Amino acid sequence: MSTTLLEHAGPGRVRRQARLTTALIATVIFLTAIAPLATDMYVPAFPSVAVDLSATATQVQLTLTTFFVGMALGQLVGGPVSDQYGRRRLLIAAILAMTVASVVCAITPSIGVMMAARLVQGFSGGWAMVIGRAVIVDLARDAHLVRVLNVIAGVGGIAPIVGPLLGAAILQLSHWRVSFWTVAVLGVVMLAAVLLAVPESLPPERRHGGGLRAFAVAGQQVLAQRRYVGYVLVSGSAMGAIFAYVATSAFVLQSMNGMTPIGYSIDFAANAAGMTLAALVAARLAGRIATRTVILAGQVAALAAGVAMLAGALWFNTPLLLALVCFFTLMTAQGLIGPNGGALASAEVPQHPGTGSAMLGFVTWVAAGVIAPLTGLGGQDTAAPMALLMIACVALSMFGLLLARPAKAPGTAEDARPAVADSPLHG
């Protein structure tokens, strides 16, 4: 798969620009996979990290928060800055920073140092992800762009499944610090791939000087759209519910119910697979069932899972079977909510697609960062805070769907916009 773009460099001359190749697409898929890999690979080790670094469950979960805050900020500013200064050099710098931060995580002497390193790791990883997507937008157009983005989303969805399995294998054979050494090695491989396969896709004459100031103006216009804000709440709250699960499930299944790291990782992968499958089903339903109806079905299922989990936590000490069923239901339901909410949000601001995408990514990753430490407030021996947060996130998502209610009568073409399958951890 390749595309060659030709541009006139002057009278009678034509200059060959960057080409969209299979190697470039594979590299961008690699870039989008770094967030779930950097997170999911060490989630099974949360209990071990807490013991080795003399940290509480909340402190360990704060390493997720700092990572997600970094991801949110990196995606928010990376696109506008690269619009002004170009893609390739900034992408290389981001990967180098992420690799160094991964090494610091691997050798960290304390939980405080890990939090700071995870912030840098998240910021640089988010910066790399948003620039990678920008490169694709630079080089592809119309139907070709849609096909390429679908390939990236589909293949990138494998990372949340592979990540915990790889992390559990590392934990079984070695030490949790090896997970971060692995991410650092992947960073070096990623750097080599970028140097070999990713050209500068935004020549100087196509750059603009607006930078973050122009982004701020566009952001105000986007946030003035009521339905856009509603759908951002739908998608962002879904991300919050996901990371209530991500931050606490290791303690619930391993510390409270005695599941092994391998068993936990297999269950984590199964839940990620359920979410990915649900997103693909939602894409198939586009045009047949109103997208808002699909979102509502997912919200109802997620709310039921949260209520059942809360009842189990308060009165039955969170039995293993109940936890497994509730987690699978919650995660599968998110495949119906998050991608559809994001697709409808983007459809509301066609005049500012980049800004809309950046704002959506910022909100979803901030939601993940805020929720993660709150789930540990009750300690390692109760799932009640997590269940309450799951319920609160789903309720907020339902409010967002109500806020984004269409002005036209349900059943019109506006209410049945196609849903786009999207990656489940990187907004």
Can you give me a brief rundown of this structure?
With 427 residues, the chain is mostly helical.
What does the model show?
- This protein is mainly α.
- It folds into two domains: 19-209, MFS general substrate transporter like domains (Growth Hormone, Chain: A); 214-420, Growth Hormone, Chain: A (Up-down Bundle).
- The chain is 75% helix and 4% strand.
- It has a two-stranded antiparallel sheet with strand order 1-2.
Keywords:
427 residues; two-stranded antiparallel sheet; Growth Hormone, Chain: A; mainly alpha; 15 helices; disordered C terminus; 2 domains; disordered N terminus; 2 strands
**What count of structural domains?**
2
Question: pLDDT below 50 for ≥5 consecutive residues: which ranges?
Answer: 1-16, 409-427
The helix-strand sequence is EEHHHHHHHHHHHHHHH
The spatial strand order of the largest sheet comes to 1-2
Pairing-aware structural class of the strands and helices?
mainly alpha
Query: How would a crystallographer describe the biggest sheet?
Result: 2 strands, antiparallel
Q: What best-fitting shape do the alpha-carbon axes yield?
A: globular
DSSP summary, beta strand count: 2
Q: What number is the mean pLDDT?
A: 77
CATH class of the largest domain: Mainly Alpha
Q: So how many helices?
A: 15
* Alpha carbon gap, first and last residue: 26 Å
Strand content: under 5%
